[in-house]
Amino acid sequence: MQRLFSTFPNGWPGAGLLLVRLGLGTALICVEVVALLSRGADAITSVETVVVVAGGILLLIGLWTPLAGSLVALAETGQALAANSPAREAVLIHAFLAILSLGLAMLGPGAWSIDARLFGRQRFDLDRTRGGKP
Q: Is the Cβ–Cβ distance between 55 and 69 less than 8 Å?
């Protein structure tokens, strides 16, 4: 999994990625829940809603970011293409969320994520004098 990311940036870039993850994950969850409550549930929209909400949660916590971002981008692109709203705001919202999801999948989660803890660079202490053995 580490090969999917060049680095896990910290500092200001890591804080920026954290803010993007928090904003995008929250927006994905809110948009899908509101849309589900307003239009009702059929089989296809329920599956798309579950995929997007689960992906939003994964992006929010920074777990499996490339996979979650790609799946959410695919689902949001499908929703943008299938939107039959006369005001076109739904198309723009879904397209915007798809672009942000794909961009986050390409950039990675940053240092403040579960991915960084699980798959980031590990530091090993090779000093044998501290282990109790001379």
A: yes
Q: Which amino acid is at 68?
A: A
27 token code pair: 């927006």
**87: its two tokens:** 């005001």
**Tens place of pLDDT per residue across the chain (134 aa):** 545 555 788 899 999 999 999 999 999 999 999 988 887 767 777 888 999 999 999 999 999 999 999 999 999 999 888 877 666 888 999 999 999 999 999 999 999 999 988 888 766 666 655 555 55
Beta-carbon contacts of 9 under 8 Å, excluding residues fewer than 6 positions away, are: 17, 110, 111
The domains of the chain are located at 10-120
Cβ atoms within 10 Å of 35's Cβ, excluding its own:
18
